UniProtKB/TrEMBL annotation:
Record-annotated membrane-spanning stretches: 411-436, 456-473, 533-552, 564-583, 623-641, 759-786
Main subcellular location: membrane
Coiled-coil annotated spans: 100-134
Organism: Blattamonas nauphoetae
The protein's name: V-type proton ATPase subunit a
Length: 842
């Protein structure tokens, strides 16, 4: 029975929502914090905002919320720093308590220190990068000045200058540019100087870190020889536009050697400074990693607590905070115990008070008070309940479809997916996730996380698929003879034809001999199609029965007599009769059996005509069909006429009572003689009730009532037909699943082995396994899942499920931390992705 208990060990009520109490909390200011903290730890109070008209920034505890928001921002900054430095935060095992002011000081100091270290590190990297580039320039460009290259260039320029009778001196610049930009850079210089520049390049052996890009890139040293100041200006501007750095270069070899030694010494000093800064940064981050999760938990709890306190209002003396909210009835005693513990721990002289209020028929700020819907969950029921809630949240007191769906959802899935082998794969997959559930962390992608959440549903779906596969006698599209065929076949030696004699019924499911029969597909189609109709009608009848349970619970007796009874009679008279004919035809020993579809058509078209003997399926068929058709005809006006008439009558009767009350109320105000002995005191609640009664006349709209009744009647009648036809998808998908499996089996195994021998067998088996897992298990499984979901949302739940409620969302520190933890995990995953991308590029 543990599958019907929640995490706290209490029994789960899956049939409808937990009963709720509307409670008022009066908390003294000196113990309000402790009381709310205890209630948040319990997680069983859904608070209502008593200050919806006040802007959040003007509420009492808004400054504390802003402080928590700022601390959460700093925690996110810490998390990013930990990711980029490959440090994993330690998991917290208990809820620690801190002082918010102390945390603010500590967080601010740590953030300032990390930002200062980060800024210094950026400047340090930039200086280091410049020194490395300058060192490469001095080392790689030196051969141009140590040999005869520069002398030859100057001699050539001098000869040209003598010919032109001008005084031209040869200049040069050297620098570093990104290798990928060098080609465009050289072309631009060639065009700008009209080819009067000698430009050469020497690639740097190792990548150089570029602070502007945040990664290491390949760079090259360039040397440009030119003549004239204009050429120098053009080269300088072009270098700036391509982010090329120009460094000074001395032609004197001794000066270059001295500068190179100075650069190497500075690089050593910078490396020591960088190591010390990194060590200091890691020390701060390791201290943060030890407490990050604990701090996050505390800040989430504090923020949720102050957000809840902002929903409270102050009493007239401003000494107490007054809050209201919904509490499950079975948790009222636990709430009172929490308040008592809070009063003791806070040493408050005034105890906290929690009292139940009558909520039925009450309104708050014009809105009717309606309890939230709370259905307890556990690991087994969570997946199915989530599917139901995706359609809509059940109204308070409404029947929860999740209880029925725990059984019908896996079963309808298995009807479409019936195969022992494929069901075994699903069952083992669900069992695998169940076995590793204690070891699984949060590092799962979306697809795996969906399978993990639905692991118990996957287990039951696999078990059901094995059961229906046993009924269909299909194992990876094979038909296995588990219990021995019930037919004995004899082959005629002359004609070669086989004659089969039925000896006994196969123990369970289809007899394997049908797989070798020529009419196998015809028989299988007929069986699955009729079975789908029977299952669909039963499914919808359960939904209509649940609507009666809802009507009785809410005391809507008109709906019981004017909706449930005619709807049930219509379904039973039409589709119930058809299901009876299907079962009777299976069990009757007639050799020539009339078609059921023709029988149902003639039921409407040949109402007064006698039924021919060869088309009669059951005794007294004509009389039964006339009676059922008469019932069908009566149910339609039954759904249309009585309900609006009764509602009009009840409204007029209520209005007469209201009119009498209003006359009495007016007489009390005017002081008429007939009421001299009556008290002249009129309570405020009565006056409010009179105003509501006056509005009741305006809310009742006869035309709207008639139109709604007409729409509901037409929707049900047409929906009964279309919904029944929709269940034929059970037959269609089951047929498609079986036939697709046979196609893969024939082409991948049989024909491959015939064409290529052992190699073909190995290749065919590989392809067959891949197709079985990818197509038959994954794609076909997803298709059957979605069709099953549609059958529950549309065909079942529209019979009784209004889904007009809202969820029970209590103040719970566990939920608040989980949400922040998931957000932090997503942020860490994004930062890890960015970090890995940068490292790959580097």
């Amino acid at each position: 029975m543990s599958m019907f208990k929640d995490t706290s060990g209490e029994m789960i009520n899956l049939f409808r929502s937990e009963e709720m109490e509307y409670m008022q909390f009066v908390l003294p200011r000196d113990s309000a914090y402790h009381s709310t903290h205890e209630l948040g730890t319990l997680g069983m109070v859904h608070f209502i905002d008593l200050n919806p008209h006040i802007h959040p920034s003007r509420r009492e505890f808004y400054p504390e919320i802003r402080r928590c928001d700022e601390l959460q921002r700093i925690l996110r900054f810490f998390r990013v720093q930990l990711v980029w430095n490959d440090i994993t935060p330690l998991e917290h095992t208990e809820h620690s308590r801190y002082n918010l002011s102390d945390l603010e000081t500590k967080f601010t100091d740590a953030e300032v220190s990390l930002q200062q270290l980060q800024s210094n590190n950026s400047q340090l990297l930039q200086n280091k990068n410049e020194l490395i580039e300058m060192r490469n320039v001095l080392e790689l460009a030196a051969p141009y000045f140590s040999g005869s290259k520069v002398s030859e260039l100057r001699q050539a320029y001098s000869e040209q200058a003598q010919l032109r009778d001008t005084d031209v001196r040869l200049g040069f610049v050297s620098g570093v540019i990104q290798l990928s930009k060098y080609e465009q850079f050289s072309r631009m210089i060639y065009v700008a100087t009209r080819g009067n520049v000698f430009l050469d390049t020497i690639p740097i052996a190792e990548p150089v870190y570029d602070p502007t890009l945040g990664k290491s890139v390949e760079k090259t040293v360039f040397v440009a020889f030119f003549s004239g100041e204009r050429a120098l200006t053009k080269i300088t501007r072009i270098s700036e536009s391509y982010n090329a750095a120009i460094y000074p270069f001395s032609e004197n070899e001794e000066e270059r050697a001295e500068v190179l030694n100075q650069i190497r010494e500075r690089l050593v000093v910078l490396q020591e400074v960088e190591d010390k800064a990194t060590s200091q940064k890691l020390m701060i981050l390791k201290d943060i990693a030890e407490n990050l999760e604990s701090w996050t938990d505390f800040i989430c709890r504090e923020r949720a607590l102050f957000h809840t306190l902002n929903m409270f209002s102050s009493d007239t003396t401003s000494k107490c905070l007054v809050g209201e909210g919904w509490v499950p009835t079975r948790s009222v005693n636990a709430v009172n115990d929490c308040l008592q513990r809070a009063s003791i721990s806070s040493s408050s002289s005034v105890p906290s008070i929690a009292q139940s209020l009558n909520w039925e028929g009450k309104k708050r700020r014009g809105d009717k008070l309606v309890p939230p819907t709370y259905i307890r969950r556990n690991k087994f029921t969570s997946a199915v309940q989530s599917l139901v809630n995706s359609y809509g949240i059940a109204s308070y007191g409404e029947v929860n479809p999740g209880l029925l769906s725990l059984v019908t959802f896996p079963f309808l899935f298995a009807v479409m997916y019936g195969d022992i082998g494929h069901g075994m794969i699903l069952l083992l997959t669900g069992l695998f996730f169940i076995m590793i559930e204690k070891k699984v962390g949060k590092g799962m992608n979306d697809l795996i996380s969906y399978l993990y959440v639905g692991r118990y549903l996957l287990l039951v779906m696999g078990a059901m698929a094995i059961y229906t596969g046993l009924l269909y006698n299909e194992t990876f599209s094979f038909s296995l003879n588990f219990f021995g065929s019930g037919y004995k076949c004899v082959v005629d030696e002359i004609t070669g034809e086989s004659t089969c004699v039925h000896k006994h019924t196969y123990i369970i499911g289809m007899d394997p001999i049908w797989r070798s029969c020529f009419n196998n597909l015809i028989m299988t189609n007929s069986l699955k199609m009729k079975m789908s109709i029977i299952i669909g009608v039963l499914h919808m009848l359960i939904g209509i029965a649940f609507s009666c349970v809802n009507h009785i619970h809410f005391k809507h007796w008109i709906d019981v007599w004017c909706e449930f009874i005619p709807q049930m009679l219509l379904m039973l008279s039409l589709f119930g009769y058809m299901c009876f004919l299907i079962i009777y035809k299976w069990m009757s020993p007639q050799e020539v059996k009339p078609m059921i579809i023709r029988t149902m058509i003639n039921m409407f078209l040949s109402f007064s005509s006698p039924i021919p003997p060869d088309e009669q399926l059951i005794p007294h068929q004509a009389g039964i069909q006339r009676f059922l058709l008469l019932v069908i005809v009566i149910t339609i006006p039954w759904m249309l006429i009585p309900k609006p008439c009764i509602e009009i009558y009840q409204h007029r009767k209520e209005m007469k009572k209201i009119q009498a009350k209003q006359e009495q109320y007016k007489a009390l105000q005017d002081g008429e003689e007939g009421y001299q002995g009556t008290s002249m005191m009129v309570e405020e609640e009565d006056a409010q009730g009179m105003a509501e009664w006056t509005v009741a006349d305006e809310e009742f709209n006869l035309g709207e009532v008639l139109i709604n009744t007409l729409i509901e009647c037409i929707e049900f009648v047409l929906g009964a037909i279309s919904n029944t036809a929709s269940y034929l998808r059970l037959w269609a998908l089951s047929l498609a699943h079986g036939q697709l499996g046979e196609v893969f089996l024939e082409y991948c195994m049989v024909k491959a082995s015939q064409l290529a021998g052992p190699i073909g067998i190995a290749l065919g088996v590989t392809v067959w396994i891949g197709a079985t897992i990818a197509i038959l298990c994954a794609m076909e499984g997803l298709s059957a899942f979605l069709h099953c979901l549609r059958l529950h949302w549309v065909e079942l739940q529209n019979k009784f499920y209004k889904a007009e409620g809202y969820p029970f969302e209590p103040l719970s520190f566990a939920t608040a931390f989980e949400e922040e933890d998931l957000a932090g995990f997503d942020q860490m995953q994004n930062e890890i992705g960015k970090r890995e991308a940068v490292r790959e590029q580097a």
